[in-house]
Write a structure and sequence with these properties.
Layout: H1 3-10, H2 12-16, E1 20-24, E2 29-33, H3 48-67, E3 74-85, E4 93-99, H4 103-111, E5 117-126, E6 132-144
Antiparallel strand pairs: 1-2, 2-4, 3-6, 4-5, 5-6
Length: about 150
């Protein structure tokens, strides 16, 4: 099962919004939100909540791809998130997530008995013209089991 399939299977909100996991690796995750009138706002674009879920889902996908080997000893949790809506989003939008710290550094902190925190940055773009419509930063942690 791919990371995208795993998220769609375990996170009902990702299924509800019909998110499409286009690319998922430890280097980046790319997730698309189809244009769906049921999730539009008052100006005909994707609702802010749908865009938040899109970006947060992209951040979760890269976290699972980068740290999936650690799931037997730690659970990834979002600590906080901040989003900025930059331009009007219309039509299909895509979120691209990248890790803000090297994965090896995060794992080393976990190995040393810590509870590492690390940022994931996400750019949300309009597919029609590539314009950045939103930016999000999610701070994640790997909480050791037990």
């Amino acid at each position: 099962m791919s990371v995208g399939e795993l998220l769609a299977a375990t996170v009902p909100m990702a299924r509800t919004l019909n998110l499409e996991f286009l690319e998922t690796s430890a280097e980046r995750a790319v997730v698309r939100l189809p244009d769906q009138p049921d999730y539009h706002n008052h100006v005909g674009g994707p609702h802010a909540g749908a865009m938040f879920t899109l970006a947060e889902s992209a951040s979760g996908a890269i976290v699972l791809a980068a740290f999936g080997e650690q799931l037997s000893r730690a659970v990834p949790l979002a600590v906080k998130a901040e989003i900025a809506y930059k331009k009007l989003a219309k039509g299909v939008v895509t979120a691209t997530a990248t890790l803000g710290r090297p994965a090896a550094e995060v794992v080393a902190e976990l190995d040393a008995g810590g509870r590492p925190e690390f940022p994931v940055t996400v750019a949300i773009t309009r597919d029609a013209d590539g314009a950045v419509t939103g930016e999000m930063t999610v701070v994640w942690t790997l909480r050791p089991n037990g």
